[in-house]
Prior knowledge:
The protein has helices at residues 16-19, 35-42, 58-62, 82-87, 100-115, 118-126, 155-166, 189-195, 215-220, 238-246, 266-269, 285-303, and strands at 5-7, 24-26, 47-50, 69-72, 91-93, 147-151, 170-174, 185-186, 198-201, 225-229, 250-255, 274-276, 311-313. The chain is of the alpha/beta class. It has two domains: 5-97 and 285-313, NAD(P)-binding Rossmann-like Domain (Rossmann fold), CATH 3.40.50; 100-276, NAD(P)-binding Rossmann-like Domain (Rossmann fold). The strands form two sheets. A seven-stranded parallel β-sheet has the order 8-7-6-9-10-11-12, sandwiched between helices. Strand 9 (198-201), helix 9 (215-220) and strand 10 (225-229) form a beta-alpha-beta unit. Helix 5 (100-115) packs across helix 7 (155-166). The longest helix has 19 residues, at 285-303. The radius of gyration is 21 Å and the shape is globular. Bound molecules: (2R)-2,3-dihydroxypropanoic acid. Residues 52, 74-76, 99, 281-282 line the site of (2R)-2,3-dihydroxypropanoic acid. (2R)-2,3-dihydroxypropanoic acid (DGY) is lined by residues 52, 74-76, 99, 281-282.
Amino acid sequence: MTAKVFISRRLSIEPEGVLGPHSYRINSLDRPLRPRELIDELQGCRGLLSMLTDPIDEELLSHCPDLEIVAQHAVGTDNIDLAACRERSIHVTHTPGVLTDATADLTLALILGLSRRLVEGDRLVRRGGFQGWSPTLLVGRELQGRVLGIIGYGRIGRAVAQRARAFGLKVLFHTRSPVLDPPDEAVGLDELLERSDILSLHCPLTEVTRGLIDGDALARLRPGALVINTARGPIIDEAALAQALERGHLGGAGLDVYAREPEVHPALIHRDDVVLLPHLGSADQATRRQMAEMCLGDLRRVLEGELPRYSLRVPMP
Ligand code: DGY
């Protein structure tokens, strides 16, 4: 019998606990499926539990006529053609809220790690280079009194701001949405860039934000500024970032996401002033469990004729 649901990667929980009686199949390979493989797996399925690495586009949808719901195991949905789903009345759900703290924690880890040169220190000790305490060894930068500029002041941006204030950072933010009584200072994009010692991105990837942090934007940052990206890789022009680091204009970069994931720009990979993570923003145990539960819960609701709870778009009748 054809499974009703296809789950595109192994999850951190057993699906049947939430899916109940509904049949499912899982991609048992330890890699994302190629588009053709995913289409083959989806034949006859009414639901897909997708990852941000699965392009859900016109091509796929046109070959999967039974699909009623795409439940995305992420808050970002830039891999999904939402208009094409809407046209076919396919529900699209995601996992808002549950990964806010995990992503904000990781952002602070990158800010602290870069400022205090944690990764450089770790490498030095492991290669036997630690000769004992020295007043000039790997001296980093203090956070107290510095300015953090946040682009995107949604759940994650605000959670980062809250943590940053506790470290004595002054927080500026730029967003296109209205914010009532924010505890931080709202500024225009140019002003944010010009005043920031640390720039951190927390906006979604859209046609407006793609390439937003280009060579001009980076040149506006204060000399020695740090650039942190835990949002989506294509928001930054990576070649321009590498050039700004090479010129010595920036002090470093902390990246969890990449323009052509999982590839890392070759000019970034060997730099000591760059900390590179493998897209770990939501990777803590409780968060990953909740993400899986939300997706599976919505799949089950739709299979049982109910509306999903974490819908991005109400399908057209
Ligand atoms: C998201 O949810 O968009 C994250 O990038 C996945 O960890």
